Amino acid sequence: MIERELTVSNRLGLHARATAKLVQLLSAYKSSATLIAKGREVNAKSIMGVMLLAAGQGTQVKLRVEGEDEGNVADEVAALFDRRFDEDT
């Protein structure tokens, strides 16, 4: 199991487009992924679950990944957060 602390840094937070991008990325992997924020824990592969976090800009999020490709998943998700979900391009 791998856990990473991430910060939502894009201007609009985990809105529909950013969430869809995250879920699409995760769907390519076998590992389970969980996001934890504001006292809630949700399946990161679920658009509705991630949207329920209502994680705006600056929100601290913990990513928990478990499975055979967990290292790649954690790295890819961290990179997506670092790139601000590609919203600056």
UniProtKB/TrEMBL annotation:
Keywords: Cytoplasm, Phosphotransferase system. The keyword Transit peptide does not apply. It comes from the Bacteria. It is found in: Cytoplasm. Residues 1-88 form the HPr domain. Gene3D superfamilies: HPr-like. Its main location: cytoplasm. The keyword Cytoplasm applies. Pfam families: PTS-HPr (PF00381). One of its GO terms (cellular component) is cytoplasm. GO terms for biological process: phosphoenolpyruvate-dependent sugar phosphotransferase system. Belongs to the HPr family. PANTHER family: PHOSPHOCARRIER PROTEIN HPR, PHOSPHOCARRIER PROTEIN NPR. This is HPr family phosphocarrier protein. It comes from Montanilutibacter psychrotolerans.
